[in-house]
Amino acid sequence: MTVLTALVRPGRTRTLVMFGLAAALLLLAPVVLSPFRLDLLAKFLCLAMVAVGIGLAWGRGGLLTLGQGVYFGLGAYLMAMHLKLADAGPGGVPDFMLLYGTGQVPGWWEPLRSPVSAILLVVLVPAGLAALLGWAVFTRRVRGAYFAILSQALAAAFAVLLIGQQQTTGGTNGLNGFRAFFGYDLADPVNKQMLYLIAAGVLLGMVAVMRQLTVSRFGELLIAVRDQEDRVRFLGYDPALVKVVAYVVAAVMAAVGGALFVPIVGIISPADVGVVPSIGFLIGVAIGGRATLLGPVLGSIAVSWAQTSISEQFPSGWIYFQGALFVLVIAFLPGGLASVVGTLRRRRAAEPATDGPATDLLADGPATERSPA
Questions:
Q1: Residue 70 pLDDT more than 80?
Q2: d(CA 198, CA 56)
């Protein structure tokens, strides 16, 4: 009975069990899914990595990040540049530069010839941009809708920049036609399974990092900044620094997801990094439950799967279904689908107290708990 109670109630035991179950399901997928469906699931896992970061920044920190497509795109384009240079060979020129450019590789492309440099830049460039932007914004105490609009404008500007640089980024066509990934042939089904397992392992690692951050002192500070920023500042902490750290972690997770997205899907274009994809990332997190550990991941995967399935039957109807689902969740279930179990548990726990004095209800912790901002 003690074991069952530990599995039902929130805590370390239930977290470990859920984590192990998720890992087992991901490892079982190559056995039960066709190669086509496995490739789709690998793509969904890359998008779920972005959702993990949004869950930290928005769910825990209250930062409405509407521009994560920027960091997803940075990681994706940096990896795509490396793959194009690797396919061209030592000293070679990517094929699209021969068609649209001068036939010479720009100097800022050259560091991406090295696999080690490419991996480092995938992490450092988005982290540096997020740190710079976050520090400039949060030190000026920009928050709420103003921060959301600013991040969304950044995503729009980034997409326009990519479209205008056809000679170096491929323009609207983006970068595609990759043949190998760090020496492994992308046409080989075995290597595609390897990419899926890498994506699954990275996603599980991000969830584990997210868990450690939320239960640490930093997680407590992040929630405190979200709920009472002025009080945190009065206690001697710098809320801007806490927000910057959360924003940078979310940016790195999005960039890593973008870097893995490129060899799995085989293309990256401005259509994958603009305003609409950025809002799509947020919708998945909101539907799954932004303040929970696995809610953003499950919500992102579910929305991506629904988009693929519904688009096959109703190509022009998905965007309306997505918008309606988002409105319904925000209006009637602000905590997302992951909050259904907790809501039912609190109602069940509160039922015996309805016949007692009013002070019993006021003393009940969950009944007076503040919902996430």
A1: yes
A2: 22
Q: Which two tokens stand for residue 68?
A: 């994560």
pLDDT tens for each residue of 148-169: 899 999 999 999 999 988 888 8
Q: Of 308, 309, 272, 302, whose CA–CA distance to 287 is shortest?
A: 302
Instruction: Return the closest-CA partner of residue 75 out of 273, 246, 209, 277.
Output: 273
Three-state secondary structure call for residue 290:
coil
Which residues are registered as beta bridge partners of 184? 181
Burial classification of residue 284, based on how many CB atoms lie within 10 Å of its CB (0-12 exposed, 13-18 middle, 19 or more buried) = buried
3-state helix, strand, coil in the chain (%, to 5): 75, 0, 20
Task: Give the residue from 194, 175, 347, 355 showing the smallest Cα distance to 273.
Answer: 175
Q: Is the dihedral of CA 168, 173, 175, 176 positive or negative?
A: negative
* pLDDT tens figures, 302-334: 888 888 888 777 777 777 777 787 788 777 777
Distance CA 204, CA 206 (A): 5
Q: Please report which helix (H) or strand (E) contains residue 267, including its range.
A: strand 267-268
pTM score of the predicted model? 0.86
Q: Give backbone dihedrals phi and psi of 267, rounded to 5 degrees, phi first.
A: -160, 150
CB 258 within 8 A of CB 270: no
